[in-house]
Structures are given as C-alpha cells and as structure tokens.
Amino acid sequence: MKARVHVMLKNGVLDPQGEAVRHALGALGFAGVSGVRQGKVIELDLADGTTEATVKEMCEKLLANTVIESYSVELA
Amino acid sequence: MKAAVLQFPGSNCDRDMAVALEKAGADVTVVWHKDAALPKVDLVAVPGGFSFGDYLRCGAIAAQSPICLALIDHVNKGGYALGVCNGFQVLTETRLLPGALMRNAGLKFVCKTVGLKVETTDSAFTRGYAAGQVVDIPIAHHDGNYFVDDETLAALRDQDRIAFTYTQNPNGAKADIAGVLSENRRVLGMMPHPERAVDAHHGGTDGQALFRGLLDQLVQA
After folding, report:
1. Which domains does chain B carry?
2. For B199, what's the count of Cα atoms within 13 Å in the CB-facing half-sphere?
3. Residue B103 and residue A20: Cβ atoms within 8 Å?
4. What is the pLDDT of residues B28-78, one digit of tens each?
5. Chain B residues with CB within 8 Å of chain A CB
6. Residues of B known to be catalytic
7. A30-39: long-range pairs with CB below 8 Å, 24+
8. Separation CA B47–CA B22 (nearest Å)
9. How far apart are CA B156 and CA B126, in angstroms?
10. E strands within A1-76?
C-alpha cells in the first residue's frame, strides 16, 4: 500500500518561497494570482495494513515540524 | 571543563568549534553521530554545517541520530549544550529549544559579519558580555529565519531567554532573534558563529567572551 503525505506551512506562517513564486508568476504575465503557498508531497511505500495512525505518528516525529508545518495523510 | 563536539555527515564547523573551545581551555572530544553514548562531559556543542545535506528540513535527520538521543539525555540531566547555526536547527528539531528556523525572508544565503546585541547576561554563555553590548559575529546561513508563535515569544521575553538579537535583521527572524536559551538557561542556540570570531586572524575576537564565560562558569561548578 501507499500513503501520500502533504506538508504545508501553517496558516499565519509567512512563506517566503511561495511569495517569490507569486512574484515570478506576475512577472510572466499571469494576472490575478493573489497567493502562492509552497509545500511538499512525500510518498511512502508501506506494508499492507499500516494504519493511518502510524503514518500520522511518522508525520509528528519526523516528516513535518509541527511548530511551523501542518500535514495531511492520504492512504491509497 | 570537558566538552564534546558532535560530528554529522555534512558538519563543517566541527573543527572550528573544537579549536574555539580548546583555546578557551576546554578538553574537547569529537563524537561521531552514530555513537549512542557521550563521553562524560559538561558541555555538548552541536556545530554548524549541512548535516545530512539539509534533507527534509535543516537539522531534522541529525535530530533523529543516536548521538542526539544521548544529547537529549545529557540536557535532561542538567548538562550544558551549545548549538551554532545548523546546531541551532538541530536543537530546535529535537525540541530542546522552542521555535523553528525557516528559509531566510530574502531567500538568499547570507554570509557576512553582523551586529548582535547581548540581550541577557544571565547565562553561562553570555555572562562574559555586558548587558546591551553590541558585538560583531559572522553569520553564514540560508535558513536562519527564526519563527516562534506569539505565545512562546511572550514567554521567552518574560523569562529573559532571548540571548542575542540582530541590530539589523538579516533574515526575517521574528523579533530580530539571533539566539535563545532553554528554560534552565543551560542550552543556547544561535545562528551566528562565535567560533569564527576567536582569533585576530578571523578579523574579530568578539566570540571569545562566549567561550571564556562558559569556561569560567563550568570550571567553578
């Protein structure tokens, strides 16, 4: 089985990289992009039967820094 | 005083840190990240560099290494620890210090000497300075933008745990914070490199007082 983890900076934490991407899109002529947030996607190949709770524990302990980041887990 | 300097794949300030501590009079052992135990030391120094290539997040992989479990144990028993640059990132990732270090607000790697204001002299690390003194210390980092939530920031201020602030913020750090202390004041994390300012040939010696202050206090203890 696979799991996909999305890690994003929390709302309220300024994302300087997202801001730079927003500026670059404006410079390319894409009008109306009012915000860009950049995060990461982590794909995990897991033993069958791995629970969502286990993947969340992985997020809490390593994959995300919950001081600044939030995460969501998709099992497939 | 006995000190250990941790060494991870990608550390590059480990030797400078060892030299700075030795110059101040410490007996230094360099310890590899796979070691599960620390020698008996008063201080553990976590040096700058790019441990594990900054993969995932700066300091995140190093924080999970066997030696960091020993570091956490050392701190929990009242031991001293100093983290500089990547070392500061490691200390926040282990949660021994609050907050996190994000990409610089200007997105660029910043390498220059900056002015630091000594915000508290109430620690072994800062007792060698005068309160409010401004010192010149080099910085060299891409991810030094210190973030804490407002509640934690208020607690840091109330408890006088902000050790150094930048006189001119180079990276977007919240409240200009360059270095913070743990609740028991025995752990300091800072982005600037005091070990790169301990010899006239470095272009400045303002970092000496940090190591000497530490030595003075720990030798007395």
Report:
1. 2-220 (3.40.50.880)
2. 11
3. no
4. 999 999 999 999 999 999 999 999 999 999 999 999 999 999 999 999 999
5. 56-57, 60, 64, 92-93, 98-100, 102-107, 145, 147-149, 172
6. 85, 193, 195
7. A37/A8, A37/A9, A38/A9, A39/A6, A39/A7, A39/A8, A39/A9, A39/A69
8. 14
9. 16
10. 2-9, 40-45, 69-75
Q: Is the CB of residue A73 less than 8 Å away from at least one CB of chain B?
A: no
- Dihedral angle computed from the Cα positions of residues A17, A23, A25 and A29, in that order, rounded to the nearest 10 degrees: 180
Summarize pLDDT for A25-67 with one digit per residue, the tens. Answer: 999 999 999 999 999 999 999 999 999 999 999 999 999 999 9
Q: 0.80 exceeded by the pTM?
A: yes
Residue type, A29: G
- 3-class SS at A42? strand
Residue length, chain A?
A: 76
- How big is the A-B interface in CB pairs under 8 Å? 35
What is the CATH T-level fold of the domain A2-75, as seen in this structure?
Answer: Mth169; Chain: A , (3.30.1280)
User: How many angstroms away from the CA of A24 is the closest CA of chain B?
Assistant: 13
